[in-house]
Amino acid sequence: MAEIVEAFKNIVGEANVLTKEMDTAYYRSGFRCGFGGAKAVVFPSTLVEQWKVLQVAVDAGCAIIMQAAKTGLTGGSSPSGFDYDRDVVIINVSRLRGLHLLREGAQALAFPGTTLFELTQELKKIDRVPHSVLGSTTIGATVIGGVANNAGGALCKRGSSYTEFALYARVNEQGMLELIDHLGIQNLGETPEEILTRLEAGEFTDADLIDDGRVASDNDYVNRIRTLDADVPNRYNADPKRLYEASGSAGKVACFAVRVDTFQAPKKKQVFILGTNDPDHFVTMRRDILATFEHLPEMVEYMNRATFTAAEKYAKDVALAIKYLGTERLPKAYALKAKAEYLLNKIPLLPK
């Protein structure tokens, strides 16, 4: 493994490869669940570096975990346990920021570390909104992370994150790493290095965009959600209809960029907060809205009493951190917290 770590350092620089347990503790744990071992955490600074790091890890037979802001609640962006049959390498892409608005903002091109918060702020300038709105938007959730997990189920008009335009790497049946360019941008080059370098440098225009019938959002969701008597739910995790290459890939491929639709911002907003002790009231209301309303709400979210009580009691520190530290500083704050916990857990008399 020492040779592999040295190869990583030659690609990204020694400071961008973590191997000590105390330094990697934060990156080896999930927000809600998941904790395990990893031989190294690597931070590429360019798309070409990401490609080269992937090549080294694949050639060495490592288990690869792609990670960005680590906001997922399922543990998928962190190791789970210490009994992997191969060495585990975490590739953290949070430094790979890049955002291009296409066709006057009708679409956006996002790199691995580009956050939904960044996209939202950029689109505000032209009165548009992103393809997805998540609870974790304020703490650094990435655009590609949302696409990879079909996130955003509370949206009524736009559905979950989905696109058929992506640039990603996969391991083929022969065990070789290959770059799949389905981003729909021509004239980027032939080799992976050429494609990634020109893409990151922004060497393309709207004239290079390809339209071939593929879609950059789940544009039929607003109609599908109105089917009240369907045999299966209109929206559920791992829906085969929404699994397409990078979309719904959940870490099975390494994504470099996606093209996603954006949407016109509502001219007016009104938030309604409703409460009831009888859930059947909301069942009736839901069916009535879906069946009779000409225009559906932008978003509908629910919170049961236990969740509300838990948030009221335990989430004040997170709310204050977001308010006073801002989203950019949260990852560093959590990393510092993980280091402190790692050291304190070594003291037998202290509670774990």
Number of helices: 11
What share of residues are in beta strands? Answer: 5-15%
Q: Going across the major beta sheet, what is the strand order?
A: 5-6-10-8-9
The backbone outline, from C-alpha atoms, is: globular
First-last Cα distance? 31 Å
The largest sheet, given as strand count, sense and whether it forms a barrel, is:
5 strands, antiparallel
Number of separate domains? 3
- CATH topology name of the largest domain, in short, is Uridine Diphospho-n-acetylenolpyruvylglucosamine Reductase, domain 3
Summarize the amount of helix as a percent range. 25-40%
- By DSSP, the count of extended strands is 11
CATH hierarchy: architecture of the largest domain: 2-Layer Sandwich
Q: What is the name of the CATH class of the largest domain?
A: Alpha Beta
Order of helices and strands: HEHEHEEEEHEHEEHHEEHHHH
Gyration radius (Cα, Å) is 21 Å
Low-pLDDT stretches? none
Mean pLDDT: 89
Strand-pairing-aware structural class: alpha+beta
